[in-house]
């Protein structure tokens, strides 16, 4: 699959700054991608240039409505109001204009036609029919989402949604605890100011949920490595971390093979990623 250049950002903030890292980690020829906590859909619209089908999910009805207004008519994009942490990943009851995330996306919100795989079935506000997030994704991303959830449980849930060989990319926040934590955070202040000035200021979409992280950098790194063996954890300058992990193709994988696979993946991604990091 050819890689199209992502659209120009309509605004900039610390999360948007690391969208490029997420996009550079999308596997070549990616079929189905999922963005968890998609918000207004900005990253979903970028991912649509690198995957055949992209689904954005969010618990907020307001965010899904905005996302569909901006990108709901793209032929390979679907938005679903859903809670990742429900047992079956079901859609929120009573949500309208939302389609099954496991099918190819519709041509536009509220329509019954789209690609050849479109079911043409919206969630009925009367019956509140639940449509799940689905499984078997080749790529899953989550940006500034995990501190709103139980971290370990969310990781387990995401790994279950990935297809064998699929890739998970996380961008998140954590709390400072050690003197080194505070020193690294302080180093990000001048960089953030320079970047904000370069991009015309820092802007957060209206209605975006805000919550302080509860885990420290050390805790996030420890739990990520426990739940995602061989993952690559990196702390970045603008108060974010990234985790990149590839799900084994199937069957038991010995530690030597797992380390070799992940080292090759990490090196490949590292060659693609540019920018200031810590």
UniProtKB/TrEMBL annotation:
The keyword Transferase applies. Residues 95-125 are annotated as: Disordered. One of its GO terms (biological process) is methylation. GO terms for molecular function: methyltransferase activity. It holds the Pfam family Methyltransf_23. Keywords: Methyltransferase, S-adenosyl-L-methionine, Transferase. PANTHER family: METHYLTRANSFERASE, UBIQUINONE BIOSYNTHESIS O-METHYLTRANSFERASE, MITOCHONDRIAL. This is Class I SAM-dependent methyltransferase.
